[in-house]
Sequence to fold (428 residues):
Amino acid sequence: MSTHFSYLNGTLYAENIPLPEIAKQFGTPTYVYSRAALIENFREYEKACQEYASKESPALICFAVKSCSNLAVLNLFARQGAGFDIVSGGELERVIAAGGDPQKTLFSGVGKTVDEMRLALKHNILCFNVESHEELTRLNAIAGEMGKRAPVSFRVNPDINPKTHEYISTGLKENKFGIPYPDVLQCYRAACTMPNIDILGVDCHIGSQIMDKAPLLEAVDKLMELVDRLSVEGIPIHHFDIGGGLGIAYNMEKAVKVNDFIAHVYDKINNWRQTKHQNKPIKVIFEPGRSLVGNAGLLLTEIQYLKTSPSKNFAITDAAMNDLMRPAMYDAWHRVQTVSQRPSGEKRWDIVGPICETGDWLARDRKLAIEQGDLLAVMTAGAYGMTMSSNYNSRGRAAEIMVDGDKIHLIRKRESNADLFAGESIPA
Ligand code: LLP
Fold:
């Protein structure tokens, strides 16, 4: 857990700000991020890269925008020198609006549309991570129409089990992602014959919340093997994109340390470059999302009612599955902390939202001393929290706050009821 959220005299703080102060000023539910935690997480990557990368194999950290896409967060990372991993035109526009560099931006995803390709080509992004032969054909045509050349990597599906939740495994042969390993050479050969395509790299991303470095390193082996084959065919590769996926501790699990992971990656790559490729330069790209933002955010919510029945105690909060989808969708476990600690009166509670679904829960069977009107903090909600939120039940999306020492910045205002149907109309 981030040390930037901690108790002082029984009250939970974000950096120097007591959370009740945020609830008072901005209401609930509200996402609260610690700027210091975000920077600390980025530094961990940066420091490891400084330690192990070299002039011949520099590193680029491309933040996975989907994990937390607020402009303030993107801007913070852009100013630290980050690149970005995007999966839609919307994410590209965000990166640009936040001051990010399109030339450090990768475009991943299986379903890029014509418009999205045009937008990305117009802004000269670093690379398209192409996921099918059909996508390659379309990209070649669009680039041709625009008088441009599209830089590409192919995303390989290496058929490796990342041992994570099945919904967030992406590198198994039954998943929709990437090009099956046995077919990828064919795609590179085809790309060589296309007039508007530049081959830049190799890419893979095998899943998310991965708690064991072995499958991630196995994927690196597969990519190295692929580059070997490509070099035999005279197809040069300039970068090596190993995706994101490093897991974090939501409870007491042991996560892979960023430094340890990057050390192992570089150990492999440096060895391989020296023994097989005469030290030929190659850039290494990482696409972390969760490990940069997950522990840097929490969801602040107020208990509306306590409802007890003979079999269960429910704490009904003003945050719901539309605000934080992860429990309902993946059975995810998030720590729930009381914002103001009570000395006694612990009972077991299910923390649930007001949405009309039994799946609307945030946490189950938690021992907490709480009363109606208390504030709760749902921890480790910085990644895939706000970005996966919806308007289900016509609920406006939460506000977002960034705390910086003793300053509170409102980085996204709460959606109003009028915002909810602003784009709708009734036929005459
Ligand atoms: N690169 C690509 C191509 C990705 O698809 C993803 C995440 C990442 C990088 C970043 O992965 P990370 O470092 O954050 O693990 N909604 C789910 C997670 C979905 C991940 C999707 N792809 C959750 O809440 O657990």
